[in-house]
Write a structure and sequence with these properties.
Length: 407
């Protein structure tokens, strides 16, 4: 089905290019080829990833309207289901003076956080290879109707998603990023909501652009996109089944961005009503109201130095001891980058620190611009900690190399 859709898109693009010669219709075709390979640092030094991808992006413009499609042609030597042709985005876009419309498969981003999710809850994440992909590549597109009033001092946006998408959790014996399970234990994440109109997502956002700062207000009816897991025991088979739970929840929040010279201060917060949280014994879950907040800054210090830091905090309102999550949890992130050699070499370090579990993820990378079209990258990912997800993937610390060619 995907291959047929891609063929139809390519055929339509060719037809549009012919039609463009007779009318005021223009066609753009661009994309890139990239290849990524990673090796485990610890014994037995396994290949952690080996994949090559061709991304084709096509846009047909006619006045204020356009058609956009994005296709991935990929080969993954470790995870076979990741090889093939995949439609990423495909939407109709209209940009008028008083109305903007985007209809189709698209990526929707809200909020001002960098790599953390407070109000940015519509497009989920694909963690098939955990964080071994660039952040933009792990976003999952959704089929949506996006209406926007693009005012000068403020904008209003309404989003409707008939069938929500959910996090893709790593699985399969051939995937080194699969969640390790104890013996006689299986995982069932098939319990996503039925594809009915009552389970659709709908949200709105108001953005205000003032002289000294910008801010927005958001409201969203959505689901917990990452499953909450509970364990059930079958005495007949003596097996444990870990089931994923998805519940509807309402989100109200907003964000603010304040530029101050070389510094940009970012604040984002939201209250989740009805967020599912597993019990400490993992046998069931409760729906709770939680407050989620973030404060961060970006400092463009001159001489091609950039510093970023963020602090995110979660507070469970009316917390009980039976919950498997602490009343207060927090996460820190930081990024430092420097461009040298006439801006052809970018050195960067990005880190995440799970305060409560004393867990960490650190990515160090060097990106060399060989030409305007070719970028070569080397880097490493280090994971560890006392508890939590980062500790689980400690043995997956890796070194990697990547090449990318734009056209």
């Amino acid at each position: 089905m995907i291959k047929n859709s891609i063929f139809m898109l390519l055929s339509a693009a060719f037809a549009l290019s012919v039609h463009a010669q007779e009318n005021e219709l223009s066609l753009q075709l661009n994309g890139f080829v990239d290849s990524y390979h990673a090796l485990q640092v610890d014994y037995p030094h396994k290949i952690m990833s080996s994949r090559t991808r061709l991304r084709l992006e096509m846009r047909a413009n006619y006045g204020e309207a356009s058609l956009f499609s994005s296709v991935n042609l990929a080969y993954n030597s470790l995870i076979k289901e990741q090889s093939g042709a995949f439609l990423r985005e495909a939407y109709f876009d209209y940009a008028g003076k008083y109305l903007e419309l985007k209809l189709g498969r698209q990526i929707i981003t809200w909020g001002v956080a960098d790599g953390l999710r407070i109000t940015d809850l519509i497009s989920p994440m694909d963690y098939t290879e955990f964080m071994a992909n660039d952040y933009d590549d792990i976003r999952v597109p959704v089929n949506a109707i996006n209406l926007k009033y693009p005012g000068e001092s403020f904008s209003a946006e309404v989003v409707f998603v008939p069938v929500p998408e959910f996090f893709v959790i790593p699985s399969g014996e051939d995937n080194p990023w699969s969640t390790p399970l104890p013996p006689n234990t299986s995982m069932d994440l098939s319990g996503t909501p039925e594809k009915r109109i009552k389970n659709s997502e709908v949200g709105g956002r108001l953005r205000f652009f003032l002289e000294n700062f910008d801010f927005s207000l958001t409201a969203l009816r959505t689901f917990n996109k990452s499953p909450v897991t509970i364990a059930t025991y079958n005495p007949e088979t003596e097996n444990v089944v870990i089931k994923g739970i998805y519940e509807p929840m309402n989100v109200f929040g907003g964000d603010i961005s304040i530029p101050a010279g070389e510094l940009v201060i970012r604040v984002e917060m939201a209250t989740y009503f009805g967020e599912p949280i597993a019990l400490r014994n993992s046998s069931d879950y409760m729906l709770k109201k939680t407050f989620n907040g973030l404060i961060g800054f970006d400092w463009y210090a001159g001489n091609n130095w950039t510093f970023m830091a963020q602090y995110m905090h979660k507070f469970i309102i009316e917390h009980t001891e039976s919950l498997g999550m602490e009343e207060n949890t927090s996460m820190l992130t930081a990024r430092i980058s420097k461009e040298i050699l006439n801006n052809t070499l970018k050195l960067s370090v990005y880190g995440m620190f799970d305060v409560d579990n004393v867990g960490f993820y650190i990515r160090a990378a060097g990106d060399y611009l060989l030409s305007d079209q070719i970028t070569l990258s080397l880097g490493s990912d280090w994971l560890g900690g006392r508890r939590g997800t980062f500790k689980t993937y400690k043995k997956n610390s890796q070194i990697w190399a990547k090449g990318k060619f734009f056209f």
